[in-house]
Hints:
The chain is an all-alpha fold. The chain contains 7 helices and no strands.
Amino acid sequence: xxxxxxxxxxxxxxxxxxxxxxxxxxxxxxxxxxxxxxxxxxxxxxxxxxxxxxxxxxxxxxxxxxxxxxxxxxxxxxxxxxxxxxxxxxxxxxxxxxxxxxxxxxxxxxxxxxxxxxxxxxxxxxxxxxxxxxxxxxxxxxxxxxx
Length: 147
């Protein structure tokens, strides 16, 4: 079953179960997918669908950060719940320990130790870990390893 079909089926289930949060999140996500399909003028591949989902997750994380800064605890729980709903559709993310192992391997392979080479190192690591790990976490790990 494709990701798009799964989202649509889960939307129908949420509507039947009167799950307002899940219904709203899935509707917004499906709308974002449709907008991306219109922009592309065609169906999205699974990788492109995942990219749209990652964008939606990133938006939720940014909103959560803004809400925390503003002190609006009433909105915080809702945004975190939306993030949890969307995160269920993404592939399992790598743990920090797994990222450290992968980063050490790439650093050893490249022989890079100078912090000035961080851009090149990040390019190679993210090519290997694309979609499997959060870019900010990877960057944090690489910075620590290259000190």
